[in-house]
Give the backbone structure.
Amino acid sequence: MRVRFWGTRGSLAKPGRDTLQYGGNTACTEIRTDDGSLIVLDCGTGANDLGRQLLLEKLYRGHLLITHTHWDHIQGFPFFGPLFHHDGAWSVYAPAGLGTTLEETLSGQMRYEYFPVTLDQLGAQIDFHDLTEGEFNLGSVRVTARYLNHPAPTLGYRLEVGGATVVYASDHEPHSQHTHARTNLPVHREDIRHLEFLADADLVIHDAQYTAEEYLDKVGWGHTAMEVAVEFALAANVHRLALFHHDPFRDDDTLNGLVEMCREMVAARGGNLDVCGAAEGVSVDLPEGSAPRPRLEAGTDLQALVPTGLRPKVKTKVLIAVKDPALKRMLPFALRPEGFDIVNAADGKAAVEKTRKERPSLVLMEWDMPGLNGLEVCRALRDDEDDELIRVPVVLITERAEAGEISAAFEAGVTDYVSAPFTPQYIRSRVYAWIRRAWQGQTPKPTTDPG
Ligand SMILES: [Zn+2]
Ligand SMILES: [Zn+2]
């Protein structure tokens, strides 16, 4: 397997004399397997040069895995040459929203106000696939898609072929700063799942936009401090870490110094993790070895594909039980424009009763509520005889929580917790992920608004 970086910059393309070494183009990484499968990870401005190279090689077909549809991950899409070629055939994958399909989102940035060629005028055959968490095969490659923590629904991708594994986890922020005092391992269940997602990979391409010091002013922006990316990679027994999604204001000299700082951090810990800064034009070869490959047709076994019954225009109910006035204002402001139907509960007892009656897809409540607190509400629902109430995701909002309390909450059946304060974008993206995950593998819920 060969991994090649065509764009490593985050947020904004930044060409210029200060970014020659690591490159100025936004996210785009090419994966080619030994048997010739072609997978492109994200379609930032780096996709333009990749497309030119593919046309030179007369390679017109492949798979495009998009993490999310922020500009820096899709701006190269209308400039990706193979999409214009009449022999082209591309399958495009990205996380599903609840309100729009991937095709609608991508065609939005190609409306005539923004771009002279519309999506339906492209010469290639293009299939769009809305994804949620899960696994599927692309040719000989096993793909695992996993939700990341970002202010838009975002998926990371783990690609395995033969004995080679690469994980692409760009645009991700740790869910919590809580760690166990003795082991220094994360407390939050989602952070532990993230380590499992990275585990034993030959190469992890990880968000590392900030330093730990810079991160203090960027909490909730959806990115990782490079020191934390190193901690993750060490804890997950990763062989090689490529720091990725470089801040647009980071020049080459500074980045070289920071990569060196990360290497010293690994050496001080006695680890044998190899750290580099992902740089445009640089390739990494990962031997696939002789392990057997899955022999499945592309696109088969698409467990991660969103069933058509769960497509948009479903009116999705969210039960909200909060007492904080700021949250009371902000949550409906964040969720209503996305088409969520809000059911309010004034206290914990009402939260249980209304969940029984209204059947929301998600319960979002403050940890400390009058009547019953969040844990008690969760226990009441988990003890119910109704299967739907046992499974409904319950997410608690808290300003402070000790590691022991958090463990107790997960034991009580709490799905997740979020630390307040947070932004409307953050909670919106998390709500999408919790609901999508809960829906996975289930038949679609009957809805109040079938239109
Ligand atoms: Zn980004
Ligand atoms: Zn983003």
Q: What stands out?
A: Residues 2-285 form a domain with the Metallo-beta-lactamase; Chain A fold (CATH 3.60.15.10).
